[in-house]
Each structure stands twice: as C-alpha cells, then as structure tokens.
C-alpha cells in the first residue's frame, strides 16, 4: 500500500471495508434508491453493483481510501472497463420489471457519453455519512486528479446525485449532458480535461 496526503491505495485486506463505505455513502443516492428502494434489496444488490462497476480498481491499485476507510474512490485507469456482463446479470436479477427499460436507456446513454480518448473513469466515490463535511472527498479527488494532470489524461464520471455536481465542478469537471428516461432520476456525465 502507498500512503500520501492521508490517502491509501486499498489492498485485499481492506477491500470489504472499502465496499461498505461506498454502500453507506450511496444509501440516500437518488439513482441507487430508485433502482433498489427496499433497504434489504439495496444492501444485497449494491455490494455486487460496486464490484461490477469499480471492482477492477482494486486489481490495478487505483481503489483509494482515506484513514480508516471513512471515504473511498474507485478509479478505473485508461483502457480498463467496468464488468458489463456482471452489470447485466445484476440488473436482470434485481431490478423491478417496471424500471428495467429505463435503466437500459440510462446505461446506453452512459456508453454514448463516455469519452473515446484515453481517460480515467470514476464510477464511484463516497464518504461514510458519519464523516461528510470533513474534506475527505476533496482529499480523494485531489489525490487522483494530480495523477491525471501528471499524465495529461482527462477524467470522466457520471453524477447520480444533482447535489454533488457543485463538488465535481470545484474540481474542474464540466457537465457534458444529462441522461434521463421515463421515471428515472437524472444522471449527469461530467468531463475534466487534464491541467
């Protein structure tokens, strides 16, 4: 593990703790709770969703946490993709039939907005609700974006919570569209060019 500025690269020994931090951080997220409104279903599905969306960050040493895993960010390096087959399986098994079509459109929109040039992708960043407002998200973001800037590579994410858009904008991300279908909450794709 490498530690710098209070940020640690998560290894296998803290993987489960890192995942649970993200589960807690997304517990009131509009898109996640639209997907899984029942608390038990959310808890059961979200761990698998995190693994499919950002689990490869652990393999590449780009799963970052702050002290005691109070905040976590899973970054996928250029050329590394989410596990789409696993995402398909999770959606097929866990989504309510009435929202399946809407989710398919959201995922299609996400694919269409993903940059074609090499980029770092942030599928998940979260702070344990007990520690929100302590600057931990900023610490994680600055740490990862420093690497993006050193490499001259853009960063990309989709904000599933409109309340978080100003946070991303403070770190140089700009909205590049909005993805929404039917009764779904909006998803905002955001891009940050390297500085």
Question: How is the secondary structure organized here?
Answer:
Elements: E1 3-4, E2 7-9, H1 15-25, H2 30-35, H3 39-54, H4 56-60, E3 63-66, E4 71-76, H5 84-94, H6 97-113, E5 119-127, H7 136-151, E6 154-159, H8 165-170, E7 174-175, E8 188-192
Parallel strand pairs: 5-6
Antiparallel strand pairs: 1-2, 2-3, 3-4, 4-5, 6-8, 7-8
Helix pairs in contact: 1-3, 3-5
Protein described:
With 195 residues, the protein is an alpha+beta fold. The protein is 45% helix and 19% strand. It has an eight-stranded mixed sheet with strand order 1-2-3-4-5-6-8-7. A hairpin with a 2-residue loop joins strand 1 and strand 2. Helix 3 packs antiparallel against helix 5. The chain is globular and about 45 Å long. The two termini are 27 Å apart. The mean pLDDT is 94. Residues 109-195 form the N-acetyltransferase domain. This is GNAT family N-acetyltransferase. Pfam families: Acetyltransf_1.
Structural class: alpha+beta
Q: How many β-strand runs?
A: 8
Per DSSP, what share of the residues sits in E-state strands of 2 or more residues? 15-25%
User: Could you give the order of the helices and strands?
Assistant: EEHHHHEEHHEHEHEE
Global morphology? globular
Lateral arrangement of strands in the main beta sheet: 1-2-3-4-5-6-8-7
């Amino acid at each position: 593990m490498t530690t710098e500025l209070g940020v640690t690269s998560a290894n296998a020994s803290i993987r489960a703790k890192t995942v649970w931090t993200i589960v807690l951080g997304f517990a009131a997220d509009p898109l996640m709770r639209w997907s899984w409104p029942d608390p038990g279903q959310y808890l059961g599905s979200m761990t698998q969703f995190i693994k499919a969306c950002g689990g490869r960050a652990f393999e590449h040493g780009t799963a970052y946490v702050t002290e005691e895993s109070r905040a976590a960010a899973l970054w996928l390096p250029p050329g590394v993709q989410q596990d789409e087959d696993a995402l398909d399986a999770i959606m097929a098994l866990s989504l309510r039939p009435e929202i399946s079509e809407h989710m398919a459109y959201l995922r299609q929109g996400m694919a269409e907005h993903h940059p074609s040039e090499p980029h770092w992708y942030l599928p998940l960043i979260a702070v344990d609700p007990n520690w929100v407002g302590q600057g931990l998200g900023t610490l994680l973001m600055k740490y990862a974006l420093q690497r993006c800037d050193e490499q001259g590579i853009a960063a990309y994410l989709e904000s599933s919570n409109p309340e978080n858009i100003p946070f991303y904008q403070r770190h140089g991300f700009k909205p590049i569209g909005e993805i929404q279908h039917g009764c779904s909450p909006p998803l905002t794709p955001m891009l940050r060019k390297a500085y």
